[in-house]
Each structure stands twice: as structure tokens, then as C-alpha cells.
Design brief:
Helix 7 (201-212) packs parallel to helix 9. The protein contains 10 helices and 16 strands. The strands form 4 sheets. The chain has an 8-stranded mixed sheet, with helices on both faces. The protein has a 4-stranded mixed sheet with strand order 6-9-12-11. A two-stranded antiparallel ribbon has the order 3-4. The longest helix has 25 residues, at 97-121. With 301 residues, it is of the alpha/beta class. The N and C termini lie far apart (55 Å).
């Protein structure tokens, strides 16, 4: 079947987009973007293909993308399939020995390799890693406390093998820049005694961005970005703006930990953090290479 011919107007529109992108390609060449990949963008095959092509393109124009992926729904599906029950505390999965073994199998195994293969198929050169490879992500056990409203006694919640990064070894990732490899990282880390820990992917992305001095931390979500009280997208925020909006209740729920991760990375030298809607095709390119972007950018004060 013959391909449909583009009209002159369509060709001019494409040329305009490319022309607009060129200054940003020059601006970001040689810089590192840490991209947290998850949510609907990872579960939809068409969006997953777009994401892989966009990552390969970023590398082609001189940007160094580092991918950190989640996989909570996929872990949940495998636990259900194996009839292993799991519970949650404050949105975090309680991870016993059986559960962390399944989490590692899913995250470091099939899921990670599918993303790697998609990027390779799109023309990139990707390699899959977990935080255990080369001790990339050293972790400590995550602790949470909860205060009883009646007795006012604070108790420690045991989440099992859930960790938080205590040290990132940036040399592992820096070595890939010289050979044009795109690292794809599963959020599994190693404890002080060699234990395996599951880690929140947002947290991993923020710590890696901070440790390597990334130019950008980009987080793909299932919402447009940060919304105001009228549910309209806020295009740009400063660190202080985020604190004000959190205090007055504009920012709430699951957006709070994402923005706390953004602030963490900005406090440690990352130039900008972006909250993007991963359900939009080519959202990475639209945010990076257009004048107004498409999500919310948080910048240092």
C-alpha cells in the first residue's frame, strides 16, 4: 500500500518543530537526564514503543539518558498469579522474603529486559542493571513510624525488605557515557550484609540524579503534572512555591512524595525536575525540545 503523501502545510509544520528543537539540542548536548519510567506509559505497548524511540533519539542528539523503571502493578500481578498475599502500609508494599524474591525476579528480569530490548530495537544501545550490579545502589532498611491517636505512642512499622538508598556509586554509570550505552536500572538494592531490598523507583531516580549531578530529573506519571486549586496545570514552580502549595493543601496525596524527591535532587545540585504525563505520546520530546513544554518544571530558588 502506498504511503499517504504529506501536504505542504504538514511538511512545514514538521520543519517548524525541528527548527524549534535545534537550540535545545545544542543546549542539552553532553548533559545527563535521569528519567523515571513507570505508570501507564510502561503498561501501554504503543506508548512503550514511543518511549523507547524517544530515549534512543535523546542519546543520538548527545544527551545521556539514564532510565530508572518501576513495576508495582507487574509485581502485584505475579504475586496474585503465585497466590502470594501482600499488604500495604502508607502506600508501601510490606515485603517479606518471598515477596522480595518475586520483586527482584520481575523488576530485574523480564520487565527490565523488555525495556532494554525496546530501546535497542529503536536504535539505541541499552544495558539492563539492578542496584546490586557493581553495588550501584547500597541501601539501608526503610523505617516508618506511626503515632497512635489515642495513646499518642509512636510505634515503628516493619516493612520487611523495603530499603532506601544510603549510597549511590556513580562511577558505574559514568563509565557507560564513554561507550554510548543507555543504562536501564531496576530499583533493587543491596543491604549492608548482602540482603536484597526493594526500593521505590521515584526515590532511586532522585538519589541517582543527585549523585551524578544530572541536569534534569524527569518523572513520568499518570497525571498532567502539578495542578492548582482549579485543577489547571502549573507549568513552572520554584522550590519555595512547592513548599507553599504543600502547606496550603494544593499539593496532596501521591504527588507529595514525588515532589519531595524533586526537592531532594534540586537541593543537591540537579538543575531542574519535571513532572510529566506519561500517557501523552512523545512527552519526553515535547517537554525537552519545545519552548513552553507540556508538564510541570520545578527549578531551584
Amino acid at each position: 500500500m502506498a504511503k499517504k503523501q504529506m501536504t505542504v502545510e504538514e511538511q512545514l509544520k514538521k520543519a517548524k518543530i525541528l527548527s524549534e528543537a535545534l537550540p535545545y539540542m545544542h543546549q542539552f548536548a553532553g548533559q545527563t537526564f535521569v528519567i523515571k519510567y513507570g505508570g501507564h506509559a510502561m503498561g501501554d505497548s504503543a506508548l512503550a514503543e514511543d518511549f523507547a524511540r524517544d530515549v534512543a533519539l535523546l542519546k543520538q542528539v548527545g544527551i545521556n539518558p539514564i532510565i530508572v523503571h518501576g513495576g508495582g502493578p507487574q509485581i502485584g500481578a505475579m504475586l496474585d498469579k503465585l497466590k502470594i498475599q501482600s499488604s500495604f502500609i502508607d502506600g508501601l508494599r510490606v515485603t517479606d522474603q518471598a515477596t522480595v524474591e518475586i520483586a527482584e525476579m520481575v523488576l530485574s528480569g523480564s520487565l527490565n529486559k523488555n525495556i532494554v530490548q525496546a530501546i535497542n530495537k529503536a536504535g539505541g544501545l541499552a544495558i539492563g542493571l539492578s542496584g546490586k550490579d557493581g553495588n550501584l545502589i547500597e541501601v539501608q532498611k526503610l523505617t516508618r513510624t506511626k503515632r497512635d491517636p489515642d495513646s499518642n505512642i509512636e510505634r515503628i512499622l516493619d516493612l520487611g525488605f523495603v530499603g532506601e538508598p544510603s549510597r549511590i556509586n556513580p562511577e558505574i554509570l559514568e563509565s557507560f557515557e564513554d561507550i554510548d550505552v543507555i543504562p536501564v536500572i531496576a530499583p533493587i538494592g543491596v543491604g549492608p550484609h548482602g540482603e536484597t531490598f526493594n526500593i521505590n523507583a521515584d526515590t532511586v531516580a532522585g538519589h541517582i540524579a543527585a549523585a551524578i549531578g544530572a541536569s534534569k530529573l524527569i518523572m513520568l506519571t499518570d497525571v498532567e503534572g502539578v495542578l492548582d486549586k482549579q485543577k489547571k496545570l502549573i507549568n513552572q514552580l520554584s522550590q519555595n512555591d512547592v513548599k507553599v502549595l504543600q502547606k496550603d493543601g494544593t499539593i496532596s496525596g501521591g504527588m507529595i512524595p514525588k515532589l519531595e524527591t524533586c526537592l531532594f535532587s534540586l537541593d543537591r545540585g540537579v538543575s531542574a525536575a519535571h513532572i510529566l504525563d506519561g500517557r501523552i505520546p512523545h512527552v519526553l520530546l515535547l517537554e525537552t525540545f519545545t519552548e513552553h513544554g507540556i508538564g510541570t518544571m520545578i527549578h531551584a530558588d
